[in-house]
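ENTRY TYPE: protein
CONTENTS: sequence, structure tokens:
***
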Amino acid sequence: MNAPAHIAAPVELIDLSDPADYAPVDAFARAHPQGTPFHLSAWLRGVELGCGQRGHVLAVRRAGVVLGMVPLTEMHHPLFGSALVSSGFAVGGGILAYDEVAAHVLATAAWDLAHRLECPSVELRGGDLPEHEGWTIKRGAHAGFVRPLAADDEKELLAIPRKQRAEVRKALGFDLAIEVGRARGDLDAHYAVYSESVRNLGTPVFPRKLFASILEGFGEDADILTVRRAGQPIASVLSLYHGGAVMPYWGGGTAEARTWRANDMMYYALMRHARQRGCDRFDFGRSKVDSGAFAFKKNWGFTPEPLSYAIRAAGGAAREVDPLDPKYQRRIALWKKLPLRVANRVGPWLARGLG
């Protein structure tokens, strides 16, 4: 794509501390068909409060009307380097615009901002991808999984392929309790379960404050669903709600969860809960192609849709924080062996750089 011959309007840096400045941009992101929760100020502020990585929003406006925007997180970490990411700790983001000119100037402005912030690369996760000089488009490494919610519980079961449906029916036969809430107790249960789950996968846990900040910032557009067995939490998920879709974002289960099919119960119960909230779609997020999570989501009857990202890096070398990279495999194996209390103490510092 060649550079447009004219510029529609100057690019503005939105003040995330001023609701009057960011509210029209949030409204634009909510109305845009490619908008995600990760385009909203609540996400950027939650990441900033929870992980200390500063948020920025660039927008193009003409006569007060927003023509395009891009949310950005300024990532800095001594082990994982620096980057300007749209959006940090998210599986989506990127430029939103109704016009090619606005998209082009926003991409250029993001690159200019990266220089000023001493970030050697920019990562745009979806949205309007800049295909002009200097940008590299990566396609097909990840896939997204979204499908409509069924009309009722039984039809939801029938929408799940036979083998996975049998697992859900087993879960329904166990004495499992479902709780949904946003209180401190819900957050405590979620963090206990999630931190054990990611330790078992060899991944550092995010700071507890990140989950608390996102939950507070999104208000009723976020909640926690927890599965309990004999009063103990064994599976839990923090979900976001946006544009009629539920997105189970941070979820996991303890070692005991497998015995009671608690993860299967968790996602089926979330489908029911989301339908009761008025949602019509279940967004299972993204997964690396051919990973275990990719296969799990296909087993639930979701069809993978290839995702595309854009990267621009000084000297052509972007940072690499993919846990499936072979260079991380030994470290992952060692992390799985850490006592949970040690993993929970060290993990949040490491995870701050994984956005």
